[in-house]
Every structure is written in structure tokens, then in C-alpha cells.
Design goal:
114 residues; mainly beta
């Protein structure tokens, strides 16, 4: 049974930082490209950051220079370090193991507010 479990969300003030984690089980983690998506209320789910099997990363323009995606294959974990957070980063954040069909976590809420 495949499981992706996100953690690390919460309430943070503008300019603050959070680190999200996503632990995978039931898959050969190192064989998967991994993504972080987010979805704000009333908006479509948005791809935020990706990391492929070799560690190459890419980001949506709105988070470049502020967010960093990384992975630890020994721990079956993908991370999203989020710095200089803005209110518009408020959303539920989901990790995704990229494959035919794909696998999703349950999400973790990030709220950026004073």
C-alpha cells in the first residue's frame, strides 16, 4: 500500500519560514520524481516545485529564490524549505510521486498571516 504523509505545515507570519516533509512508503522512492503542489481555496491545484530522480529541480516563478525542494532517498523523504513566506503562499500543500496515475499525500495546511 502506497502512502505519502506530509507534515510541517502551520501558521506563520509574513517573512517567516517553514519546512514541509513528505515521507513515502510502499514505493521504491528513489525511482520516482517528486513534486510539491499547492491549492488555495477557490483556486486550481498548482505545481510549485519538482525534483527528479537525479536531483534536478524546478520551480514555479512565484517561489523561485524563496523555496527549495530536496530529497533524501535513504529516508524516503522529500522536503520543501519555504523562506520569506507571503500571504499568497497560503494553501494546502501536497506531495506527489510522479508516475502513470501518480500518488498523492493528504496535504498539510500552510497559513501565512500576521
Amino acid at each position: 500500500q502506497v502512502q505519502l504523509v506530509e507534515s510541517g505545515g502551520g501558521l506563520v507570519q509574513p517573512g517567516g519560514s517553514l519546512r514541509l516533509s513528505c515521507v513515502a512508503s510502499g514505493i521504491i522512492f528513489s525511482a520516482y520524481a517528486m513534486d510539491w503542489y499547492r491549492q488555495a481555496p477557490g483556486k486550481q491545484r498548482e505545481l510549485v516545485a519538482t525534483i527528479n530522480r537525479s536531483g534536478t529541480t524546478d520551480y514555479v516563478n512565484s517561489v523561485k529564490g524563496r523555496f527549495t525542494i530536496s530529497r533524501d532517498n535513504a529516508k524516503n523523504t522529500v522536503y520543501l524549505q519555504m523562506n520569506s513566506l507571503k500571504p499568497e503562499d497560503t494553501a494546502a500543500y501536497y506531495c506527489h510521486a510522479r508516475s502513470i496515475g501518480g500518488y498523492w499525500g493528504q496535504g498539510t495546511q500552510v497559513t501565512v498571516s500576521a
